[in-house]
């Protein structure tokens, strides 16, 4: 199908999907740069090896997987025209997103309790990378939460139907991307530490 074919609405929908994918690709490139910097820095003499990833980061993996599942179920409920179930699942997804961020900050607290700060005399390049990568991801989760708030608002306004749910689909795609990204980052950090 030619990208110039279709109604104005179809063209706008394609443009919105394309913009989302351009954004996702640019985020992938940013995190690829960060992970490449970790791989290069791993050869430094002051790099810490055998570092334990905070247990709160493990818990956040479970939370983020659960949030993806609830978002999938919310979309499925909307397709079945179960509006109240959709509402509940969207709110649970939002709550899980907040719980993920709280868990991440608990992980930061665990790192500090182990004696490593982001800056200052107790800082270390290894831990600084953990802070930067996790915090950069948290910022993207916040963007996902804002997107989810827009979806919840539009859902309450009954903008979405079983056949018209582009906004929810775009938000879900971004949400699943940041979920998969965290799982990759967690596994990557677990491997290089």
Keywords:
193 residues, 77% helix, mainly alpha, Four Helix Bundle (Hemerythrin (Met), subunit A), single chain, 5 helices
What do you see in this structure?
- With 193 residues, this protein is an all-alpha fold.
- It has one domain: Four Helix Bundle (Hemerythrin (Met), subunit A).
- Helix content is 77%, strand content 0%.
- α2 packs antiparallel against α3 (83-113).
- 24% of the residues are buried.
The CATH architecture is Up-down Bundle
- Poorly predicted parts: none
C-alpha Rg, in Å? 19 Å
Average the pLDDT over all residues and give the rounded result.
92
Count all strands and give the number: 0
CATH topology: Four Helix Bundle (Hemerythrin (Met), subunit A)
Q: So, the CATH homologous superfamily?
A: Cytochrome c oxidase, subunit III, four-helix bundle
What structural class do you assign from the helix and strand content? mainly alpha
Look at the structure and give the CATH class: Mainly Alpha
Number of helical elements: 5
Broad shape: elongated
